[in-house]
């Protein structure tokens, strides 16, 4: 059976405006705009949902917003305050999993695939987190639950404010077919307009275009569009603490030139790297060697493994090949380093290792 990841995307509702309404009861239920005053060149940072009914949105000139809603209340942004609230929110997310990727002040992805607890399902856990955020900060968040970041992000936007939407693997294809093209996260306003001109109005229109055609039309992004309309997105939840590499380096007391000595030192480093990989049940996707010559010139050479590995022999023989692309053996060297990049899937396993997988 395919194991699906469980990703929750959380995004605060009308974040800056909601903080202002929380802190000043007179603003509640009113059209509040956070941004510089009309009559200046300022734009709207965000606005309350009451103001959105008038067609006001982020990045709109404040003057235009004031025309659309003359009774709107303008508040100057207090970024320091929003940063403080943001820290509190991110700390709440981290109570539930250490696989948290903050995306901006008011949103984050959580990988809860391996989270074990009394919650019963990823959806129930999302509900618990939303309640926790509300209890602790007085603010509402919307959550999207799905099996990858793209779908979780798309889901969190479906039911705003105070929403909770779930896209299960069984439902994704049908959901994406019907999704209006502008609702695909990653398809910006300009691309949306271009696609509409071409008659691509929703997912099922986009599905009809073969990969080569999408690349013709949209360059590199074509592949991204091809994947997302099929619900494919293998980007991992990238935490600030997730280790992405591991390495060793040494500056020698005396410069060395002899290749056999250089290989011995690099092999010792690779042996340590392999111990790390095996102890942590991880594999290397890339190997890099770094050299500093006697004259302080620095260079590095890298190789990507066709299949991620933790084998000493493989790392060591690739290291020898990389060495051939340097001036080692010909001129004295003062520093030698080797490092690996960890294979992504393994990063995921660095999360809380818990007993069982959550259902959606
Ligand atoms: P968003 O999450 O995009 O917007 P929001 O939280 O105000 O509203 P919602 O998520 O309910 O649609 O952005 C978070 C904050 O970032 C927002 O409150 C203000 C700030 N921001 C800007 O300053 N300029 C912008 O153009 C955008 C989009 C956001
Ligand atoms: Mg938001």
Note down, in words, how this protein is organized:
The protein is of the alpha+beta class. 39% of the residues lie in helices and 22% in strands. It contains 14 helices and twelve strands. A five-stranded mixed β-sheet has the order 5-6-1-7-8. Strand 7 (141-146), helix 6 (149-156) and strand 8 (164-166) form a beta-alpha-beta unit. Helix 4 (79-96) packs antiparallel against helix 5 and helix 12 packs antiparallel against helix 13. The protein is elongated. The two termini are 15 Å apart. Residues 346-355 have low confidence and may be disordered. Magnesium ion binds at residues 11-12, 15, 106.
How far the N terminus sits from the C terminus, by CA atoms, comes to: 15 Å
Shape: elongated
What is the mean pLDDT?
Answer: 92
Helix content: 25-40%
What's the story with the biggest beta sheet?
5 strands, mixed
Put simply, the count of helices is: 14
Number of strands: 12
What structural category arises from helix and sheet content? alpha+beta
Listing every helix as H and every strand as E from the N terminus to the C terminus, the arrangement reads: EHEEHHEHEEHEHEHHHHHEHEEHEH
Ligands and ions found: thymidine-5'-triphosphate, magnesium ion
Q: Report Rg.
A: 26 Å
Describe the strand arrangement of the main beta sheet, using strand numbers. Answer: 5-6-1-7-8
Low-confidence stretches: 346-355
Proportion of residues in β-strands: 15-25%
SSE inventory with pairings:
Elements: E1 7-12, H1 15-23, E2 32-35, E3 44-47, H2 49-52, H3 62-68, E4 73-75, H4 79-96, E5 100-104, E6 107-111, H5 122-137, E7 141-146, H6 149-156, E8 164-166, H7 169-178, H8 189-197, H9 203-207, H10 211-218, H11 221-228, E9 245-256, H12 259-279, E10 284-293, E11 298-309, H13 312-323, E12 333-342, H14 344-348
Parallel strand pairs: 2-4, 7-8
Antiparallel strand pairs: 1-6, 1-7, 2-3, 5-6, 9-12, 10-11, 10-12
Bound molecules: thymidine-5'-triphosphate and magnesium ion.
């Amino acid at each position: 059976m395919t194991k699906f990841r469980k990703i929750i995307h959380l995004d605060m509702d009308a974040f800056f405006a909601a903080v202002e309404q929380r802190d000043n009861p007179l603003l509640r239920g009113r059209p509040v705009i956070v941004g510089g005053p009309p009559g200046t060149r300022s734009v709207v940072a965000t606005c309350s949902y009451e103001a959105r009914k008038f067609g006001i949105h982020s990045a709109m000139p404040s003057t235009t917003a004031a025309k659309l809603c003359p009774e709107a209340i303008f508040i100057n942004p207090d970024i320091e305050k929003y940063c403080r609230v943001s820290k509190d929110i991110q700390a709440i997310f981290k109570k539930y999993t250490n696989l948290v990727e903050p995306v901006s002040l008011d949103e984050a992805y959580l990988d809860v695939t391996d989270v074990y607890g009394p919650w019963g399902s990823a959806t129930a856990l999302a509900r618990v987190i939303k309640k926790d955020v509300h209890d602790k900060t007085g603010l509402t968040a919307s959550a999207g639950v799905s099996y990858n970041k793209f779908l979780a992000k798309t889901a969190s936007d479906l039911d705003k404010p105070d929403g909770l939407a779930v896209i299960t693997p069984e439902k994704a294809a049908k959901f994406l077919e019907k999704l209006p093209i502008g609702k695909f996260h990653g398809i910006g306003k300009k691309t949306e307009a271009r696609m509409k001109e071409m008659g691509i109005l929703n997912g099922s229109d986009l599905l009809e275009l073969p990969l080569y055609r999408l690349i013709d039309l949209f360059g590199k992004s074509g592949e991204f569009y091809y994947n997302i309309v099929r619900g494919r997105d293998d980007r991992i939840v990238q935490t600030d603490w997730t280790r992405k590499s591991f390495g060793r380096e040494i500056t020698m007391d005396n410069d060395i030139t002899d290749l056999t000595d250089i290989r011995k030192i690099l092999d010792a480093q690779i042996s340590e790297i392999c111990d790390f990989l095996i102890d942590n049940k991880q594999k290397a996707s890339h190997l890099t060697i770094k050299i500093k010559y006697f004259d302080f010139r620095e260079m590095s050479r890298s190789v990507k493994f066709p299949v991620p590995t933790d084998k000493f022999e493989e790392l060591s023989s690739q290291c020898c090949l990389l060495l051939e692309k340097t001036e080692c053996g010909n001129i004295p060297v003062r520093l030698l380093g080797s490092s690996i990049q960890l294979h992504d899937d393994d990063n995921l396993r660095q999360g809380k290792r818990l007993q069982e997988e959550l259902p959606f």
